Fold this protein.
Amino acid sequence: MELKEQKDRKVINQYVRAGYMGNYLLDQQGLTNLDDWGGIETVKEILPDDYKEIADIVQVPLLDVCLKEKNRGIARAVFRAAQDYFEMVVNALDNGTPICEHYFPISTEFISAVGAMPVSFDALGAISSVFWTNGCESGIDRLLSEGY
């Protein structure tokens, strides 16, 4: 997927790239721990350029947990689900679909029914605090400043 690099896409694009990078790492034969390959700095050398920025901000211990054989199936499903969802958000932005913030426990069917794309900042905060070394505040602040 080609990602537009305009101001309102940076945070969303990071989520899309994180999903792709996670699955890319899971596809590497024999990679069960980043230290086995020399740590994140060495692994970054094999990453496509689009993923290197993500490798700089992602929680490395989280990647190591995802790479364990017993966790690969669920990790792949989580990365794929995140990738699919954030690609839907990007497509909605590209198509001019309004974005509607909602709280996590709210059913999103009525938001979709009126032609808006539901985005839960609660869920984004939870995902961000797990994925990123700098937590979620800067990403949420940026999304809000860009008019989401």
